[in-house]
Amino acid sequence: MAFEQLPQNARVMVQGAARGLGRALAEQLLQDKHVATLIVTSRDADSPGLTELVRADEKRVLPLALDLTDENSIQRAMERVEEHTPALDMIIVCAGLLHDRDTGLRPEKRLADITPDRLAAGFAVNAFGPILLLKHAEPLLTHERRAVFASLSARVGSIADNHLGGWYSYRAAKAAQNQFTRTAAIEMRRRNKQSIVVGLHPGTTDTELSRPFQRNVPAGKLFTPAFAATRLLAVIAGLTPDDSGGLFAWDGERIPY
């Protein structure tokens, strides 16, 4: 696979690369001859998923521990990145929290289901995590070349597209993420005219995040991680600085906030 918009000797980072869609994105980027350095992160740098990526190409892959809910962890990871490379051409953030079996977290169907703990957990991962990562990654994206910061968002975070209700915490956290994306895009453009800061909607992908909610997915609309990764990379390749601040679906559709 050739990722057309990447320069020679590109330096790319995928947060959440140990499994699911993040893993599929990392695997496809490793197939690109332009990628000289692929930084892959997970809460555990020794996780099986990252270990397998390193085994695939230990000269190009740098595994790092990064907990998106812990700013100190984010800062340490980005300091390690700066020690390894002076700049990055692309960062893809794959974190997302919709449910958690251990804590009983599930999407709220009614107002009565809302709790402060659910709200806090959803915002910590879905909204605060990506913008805190961009805060610490910003110096690495401030250069004269095309620099992409793409975070996985969701169509359900669109206020204009909300016709069903429910899923309060997830919808609100993703809406906040979209606002962070838009606001950061404005600031980033002042520092790098070639910067692109966007949210991406991958569609319903067969991962742990969507698994409990796949029963009603229409035929042909449940994507494999490999398919979703291919489509998202194609969308990123087609973006220009004029698209910065937007939310884009897997098929290139611009989703209203």
TrEMBL record:
Belongs to the short-chain dehydrogenases/reductases (SDR) family. Residues 10-183 form the Ketoreductase domain. Signal peptide: none annotated. InterPro entries: Fungal_SecMetab_SDRs, KR_dom, NAD(P)-bd_dom_sf, SDR_fam. It comes from Spectribacter acetivorans. This is SDR family NAD(P)-dependent oxidoreductase. Pfam families: adh_short. The lineage of its organism: Bacteria, Pseudomonadati, Pseudomonadota, Gammaproteobacteria, Salinisphaerales. It comes from the Bacteria.
